[in-house]
């Protein structure tokens, strides 16, 4: 969600090729064969529509209507989003937000959006939303696309994030063979863990919560050789 008490969160994104770059051989082949091709602008559109819906119909109404059935939130523990949102009354003034950066899997089925939010009381912060294309298998058959979020969290900040000149987009590499594992196993067994990945394995996410600690979210993308991780300034480590 866009406005929670500050809890521990780590966002890791891949340093991968820009979505506006030249297509490689695999991407050209996929396009010619009618196979899915990454389109970060579709997630930009989903984010902007989500933000507009919150202003038009209410904050929690917008969250309910755009959440996937298996979506999760940190409140502050890992929680089923639809269960938490069920029957929740909309605040008088919805939080406003703007996406700053979109990172997407090579096959265009999964993406992570980060950006800034502002509340009516003057508080501000950053957010992380993971979007999934629900009817991905039918996309190349002329079916309508439907993006749903599977993870959302907002972190308060003392100072507002600077607005970029444009929304940055990037796409994971389509070359090489991706590893099978989704997340990295730690020495301590988590009390709760949720993972997800794109069908082609080029974008993965891992939400974990250890006993007595705050949950964290990690996102990695394939750079052609390994799951390259680049940390962004959304890291805190505070006890609950």
Counting DSSP H or I runs of 4 or more residues, the number of helices is 4
Which percent range describes the beta-strand content?
25-35%
Order of secondary-structure elements = EHHHEEHEEEEEEEEEE
- Helix residue percentage: 10-25%
Biggest sheet record:
7 strands, mixed
| Structural domains: how many | 1
Q: Helices and strands: which structural class?
A: alpha+beta
The CATH first-level class comes to Alpha Beta
- Poorly predicted runs are 3-8, 14-22, 230-240
CATH architecture: Roll
Radius of gyration: 17 Å
Q: Globular, elongated, flat, extended or rod-shaped: what is the shape?
A: globular
Q: How many strand elements?
A: 13
Distance between the termini: 17 Å
**CATH fold label:** Nuclear Transport Factor 2, Chain: A
Strand order of the largest sheet: 3-2-7-6-5-4-8
Overall pLDDT confidence: 81
């Amino acid at each position: 969600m866009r406005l929670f008490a500050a809890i521990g969160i780590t966002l890791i994104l891949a340093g991968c090729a820009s979505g506006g770059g030249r297509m490689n051989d695999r991407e050209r082949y996929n396009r010619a064969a009618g196979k899915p091709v990454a389109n970060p602008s579709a997630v930009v559109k989903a984010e902007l529509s989500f933000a507009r819906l919150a202003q038009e119909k209410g904050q929690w109404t917008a969250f309910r209507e755009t959440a996937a059935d298996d979506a999760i939130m940190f409140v502050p523990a890992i929680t089923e989003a639809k269960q938490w949102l069920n029957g929740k009354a909309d605040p008088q003034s919805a939080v406003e937000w703007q996406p700053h950066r979109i990172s997407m899997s090579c096959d265009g089925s999964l993406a992570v959006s980060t950006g800034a939010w502002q509340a009516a009381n003057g508080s501000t912060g950053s957010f992380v939303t993971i979007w999934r294309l629900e009817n991905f298998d039918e996309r190349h058959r002329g079916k309508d696309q439907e993006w749903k979020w599977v993870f959302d969290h907002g972190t308060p900040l003392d100072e507002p994030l600077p607005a970029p000149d444009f929304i940055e987009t990037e796409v994971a590499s389509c070359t090489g063979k991706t590893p099978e594992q989704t997340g990295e196993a730690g020495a301590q067994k988590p009390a709760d863990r949720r993972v997800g990945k794109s069908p082609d394995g080029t974008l993965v996410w891992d939400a974990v919560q250890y006993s007595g600690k705050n949950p964290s979210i990690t996102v990695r993308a394939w750079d052609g050789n390994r799951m390259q991780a680049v940390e962004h300034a959304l890291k805190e480590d505070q006890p609950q």
